[in-house]
Amino acid sequence: MNSLSDRELRQVLSSDQALDIQYFEEYTETYRLGTQYPALADILRQKYSTQRIDLIAAVGQTALRFLCAYSDKLWPQIPVVFFMVESDELPETLPPNSTGVTGSLDFSGTLALALRLQPDTRHVFYVSGVSVDEGINLRSAKRAFQPFANKVEISYLVGDPLQRLLTRLRQLPPHSIVIYTQILQDANGDTYVPTEVCPAISAAANAPVYGVLETQTGLGIVGGSIMAMKQNAREGAERSLRILKGKSVQSLPVKHFTPSHIIMDWRQMQRWQLAETRLPSGSVVLFREISFWERYSAPIIGTIIFVLAQSALIVWLLLERKRRKQARSSLARLYSLELVASELATKLSDCPADRVEAEIESGLSGILAAERIDRVSWFVIPEANLPVTQIYSVSRTGIPEEPCFFSRAELPWCTARLLSGEVVTATGIENLPAEASCDQHYFTERWVRSVALIPSTSITSGKGVLALICFVVEREWPASLISRLGVLGNIVGSALSRKCAQEQQRESEQRFRHLFEQSSIGIALEDTEGRLLYTNPALSSMLGYTDEEMRGLNYAQLTGSDEEEDRILFEELLVGCRESYQIERLHMRKDGTRIWGRLNVSMLKSAGQPTPLVIAMVDDMTARKESERELEQAHHELHNLTGRLIQAQEQERQRIARELHDDVGQRLAALLVEMNILNHCLPAELTAEHAAVSDILREADELATDVHDMSHRLHSSTLRHLGLKSALRELCTHYSTHSQLHVELAAGEVSAALPEEFTLCFYRIAQEALNNAVKHSGSNRATVRLLNPDGVIRVEIRDFGVGFDSTAPRTGLGLASMRERLQMIGGRLEVNAALGGGVEIIAEAEVHQASLMAKAR
Description:
Layout: H1 2-13, H2 30-33, H3 37-47, E1 56-59, H4 61-74, E2 80-86, E3 98-103, H5 107-117, E4 123-128, H6 132-145, E5 153-158, H7 162-170, E6 176-180, H8 194-204, E7 209-211, E8 223-227, H9 229-244, E9 255-256, E10 260-265, H10 266-271, E11 284-286, H11 292-349, H12 356-371, E12 375-381, E13 388-395, E14 405-406, H13 412-419, E15 424-426, H14 437-445, E16 450-455, E17 463-470, H15 479-518, E18 522-526, E19 532-535, H16 537-543, H17 547-550, H18 555-559, H19 564-575, E20 580-588, E21 594-604, E22 613-620, H20 622-681, H21 687-714, H22 717-722, H23 724-738, E23 742-747, H24 756-777, E24 781-787, E25 792-799, H25 814-824, E26 828-833, E27 839-846, H26 847-856
Helix pairs in contact: 1-9, 7-8, 11-12, 11-15, 20-21, 23-24, 24-25
């Protein structure tokens, strides 16, 4: 019922294109969800609190009952249209601003029909469930059955579980019938799908099953006086549409809609042997089996067609005599055309490039003579939007010459079809379609009567077209002729493509020869054994030989070596494992000197070359190698100089720290002692002098502390005596105490016997990183991690500040100094930074590698 109502409502509302209707659906389904109307009302209130509603359509008794209770709270003053509502169960108080359509299930009509078909009926069994809607139907049925109480015994099978109900229906007494509405819910609260229950009841019952709902038709019921549910729903939908278009609800009173039709299932009537003659007039019988004519009409019509075909065949045979003469003439022309195609293909198969044009023109002349037409042309439609070029053309004597090209705009329709591979033919130019008006005008101006344009599929660049034109008379273009002309067009296209390929190959060879001879890079052609076949002047000059002296040499003689790597790479190249390879090798000049050359080797394969060749290109790298050697030496010297500078810096730090501690620090300590003595010696009544001396003592004490801290920063005694872990802990404590940066240290167990240069490197990196974090990061927290996995010392320093763009160029010396220190001990530095993401510095080095590098220095 819901799907039928929904379909009718949508169909009617969408019929008016002027209305833009947004459609929402909600289901009460009390037989599944119970009657929790308040909860449902709360859900709907929240769901549609921001949605403007123009009309509410209530389908069925439950929906109307819900709106009676809550429409003024949920949607006050919103029009309500209801339908599919039982007339006798219509509430006394309807929702305000509402109208609708009611109806009634025709139980009395259905029972009267059953007694008419089965006059010996003694027992009537009414079957339904116990949901709210089924209760309404039950009350209607009882009222309708009252006039029949003295004629039959009426029993109500209501609410039984399905399996128990099916068992009872199998055991009904003789002379019984069943009237079924629907089962949505049984007494146990189990719910069912009506369309699935109806077939089960019909199959189980040992008596005919009648129904009153349109949705049960075809599901096993014999039939009944069926309520026109579709008409009821359509009437409600039409009222909804009129209200949406502005009609007031008050002008549409509630309509009681009670039409029903007697609808029977022919299959069930046959099953229960019910006479169709007992049905009232106007009854509708569905699912009737087809008649003899409907079953055998196809063979009968086929026989008639066969007889007519035989008659047509006889007529055709009579007409065939007349066509035979025409066919002989056509075959002679086709033979001539085949002969032209055969001769043209033979001549072009081994024709040199300079003879192709003459042979093609000869073939076109043969087509002209064989088909007795006025002009045969071959033209090419280029891929780019360029004019169409006519390459070859032959005409009958007396036919004026045609321009050698035309634009696409002059023949747009023909050009589009030819480019898509379609053949264009016109017996008469006036027969071209309306969209080819521009093409028709072009042909008419040139007095063309008939035309055939056949595209070729064998040309590689653009689209080749064979054109046949008649100026004097019109003629037809049969498919057999077009097919053979297509073969001829492909022969011409293939010849032209082959000619173009030969010319391109010749040009390519010329370009290669020029490149080979004029290139500044040495080039050699070798066989697969490495013997030199050809060398260019650049290679001969590079190695000090003449071209004649180079030929016949093996390339291994020029490199002066037969290294395993060269041999393996060359063998992989020969067997196809690699396309090319590049290697740097020393080459021996004729005078005995050596030069560096970068050798690029690849295979040179050609379709016309039975054996592949090897092409080797040599680039003189002697000057570059010398520059690289000098650069490497300079880099090594710079690295050593950097190391010495860092060592000198550390020694100077140590000297200054020792001077500050042993000299300046001791003198400040003595000064503090003397100031204290002076302060005690002053008379007590000199309070101003005591205060001044106390201020001097405090400043002197702060100065001593600063000198001590400076000495410690320049050279940490903790690092030398207690090791890296203790020194890092002291460093983190210092920054946490003397700055806004709180530093957390996470240190694992680290050997105390680490080289001094090793521990000093990591200490300075941590010191520099924390100093940068204090100055630039803006963070109030940093972490330092000291790890020692598998003989590797790893220090990670991270802040959580503003960070920086790691891809941008850096002008500071901090990171560069860190990298130089790590390079001295064979370590590496990794910097992870991003804007807004803080900075993470990771330094690590192997203890064994650092020890070796320290000994080397």
